[in-house]
Each structure stands twice: as C-alpha cells, then as structure tokens.
Design a protein that fits this description.
90 residues; mainly alpha; 3 helices
Length: 90
C-alpha cells in the first residue's frame, strides 16, 4: 500500500483492505440501510485518499462514523403539523 499523504488511485490490495474493514461490521440489511452501506464505503475510500492507510485506524474511524450516523438518524424528527399563531419551534 502507498504511504504518501494523498492517494488518488487504488491498488487491488488497497481495495481488499477497505473490504476487510467493512466486513468487520454487520452492515447487512435489515440492520443497515443501503444508504448507510454506501456511506460507510464512501467514508473509508475518502479516509484512504486523505492518507489513512492502516487497517486499525480505518476501523476506529468507521466505528466513530457509524456512531454518528446512528445518532443522527435516531433523533426525533420535527413535526410537520402547523403550530398555533405566535408559537415558534425551538
């Protein structure tokens, strides 16, 4: 694998590493949506392009990413119901 700071192209071994990192996590449906699966793969590709080349570092970064994703999607969504006159949403 390359060791310089920015990576534009992937070697087969680089993609194999990203696939190994993804395989450590259960990202299959119905636990994870296709959007989450794609997001995780894109996230790891971006991290690799930014210079993260160690498998352990990528796994740690993916744990953080997935945690943020789940928090974001599990938060309550604002109601679409109209509010009485003079009342504002917080």
């Amino acid at each position: 694998m390359s060791s310089d700071g920015h990576h534009e192209y992937f070697a087969p071994s680089d993609m194999a590493m990203i696939e190994r990192v993804l395989a450590r996590f259960d990202l299959r449906e119905p636990l994870c949506s296709p959007a989450m699966q794609r997001g995780a793969a894109k996230f790891l590709i971006r991290k690799f392009q930014e210079g993260m080349t160690e498998e352990v570092d990528m796994a740690i970064a993916l744990v953080r990413y997935l945690g943020l994703w789940r928090v974001w999607w599990s938060r309550p969504q604002p109601s679409a119901e109209p509010l009485p006159n003079g009342v504002r949403r917080a």
